[in-house]
Design goal:
The chain has helices at residues 11-22, 26-48, 51-68, 78-100, 116-134, 138-149, 154-161, 165-191. Helix 2 packs antiparallel against helix 3 (51-68). The protein has 2 domains: 1-105, RNA polymerase sigma factor, region 2, helix turn helix motif (Rna Polymerase Sigma Factor, Chain: A, Orthogonal Bundle); 107-192, Winged helix-like DNA-binding domain superfamily/Winged helix DNA-binding domain (Arc Repressor Mutant, subunit A, Orthogonal Bundle). The longest helix has 27 residues, at 165-191. The chain has 8 helices and no strands. 74% of the residues lie in helices and 0% in strands.
Length: 192
């Protein structure tokens, strides 16, 4: 069910890429971008609710990461540091959006190539999933996104969030239980 969105590599490989990128090696930073881009797009779209805004946010976050790479503690992994930067930039964008009082494009806007029934079903599933995800605690939501979308291991999440691995497992279990309960009606409708 879960597809990793990062190239398989060890923390040591990523640390080596960071060292090379700090020295000005553009190929090393490109490798970091390729490794984290798919997950960054998913996380940004979940945060902002709009694909175009998410793409802009991810681009801004990678540019900011490149500028701030010298500030990254050499012992700290790039991924969690980058996703914290992405999340903070996204939260700032949401605050600015509230000030401007702009409305995002509605989620029920149908794709021009989708059949009306398919678009309606996809919209309903997306809305129910987003509502179920929003009902989780912020900690559980973040753990689910890091584990399921980013493909992080429990120990990575624990280190990033300052929790024990057991605590991460408990939050993940509770979150999945809540999501299953909230999404059960969809499963029943799909089987009928």
């Amino acid at each position: 069910m879960r597809e990793p969105t990062r190239e398989p590599a060890s923390d040591a490989d990523e640390s080596a890429l960071v060292v090379r990128a700090r020295r000005g090696d553009p190929a090393a930073f490109d490798a970091l971008v390729r490794r984290h881009l798919p997950g960054a797009l998913v996380a940004a779209e979940r945060l902002l609710g709009d694909r175009s805004d998410a793409e802009d946010l991810v681009q801004d976050a990678f540019l900011r990461a490149l500028d701030r790479l010298p500030l990254l503690d050499p012992g700290r992994p790039f991924g969690p540091w980058f996703f914290t930067l992405l999340r903070n930039l996204g939260i700032n964008q949401l605050r600015a959006r509230r000030v401007r009082h702009t409305e995002p494009e509605p989620l029920d806007a149908a794709s021009p190539d989708a059949l009306p029934d398919e678009a309606m079903i996809r919209t309903e599933v997306r809305e129910r999933f987003d509502a179920a995800l929003a009902a989780l605690t912020p900690r559980q939501r973040e753990i689910v996104m890091l584990f399921e979308v980013e493909g992080w291991k429990g120990a990575e999440i624990a280190k990033h969030l300052g929790l024990t691995p057991e605590n991460v497992r408990w939050h993940l279990h509770q979150a999945k239980k809540s999501l299953r309960t909230a999404l059960a009606p969809l499963m029943e409708e799909g089987n009928s």
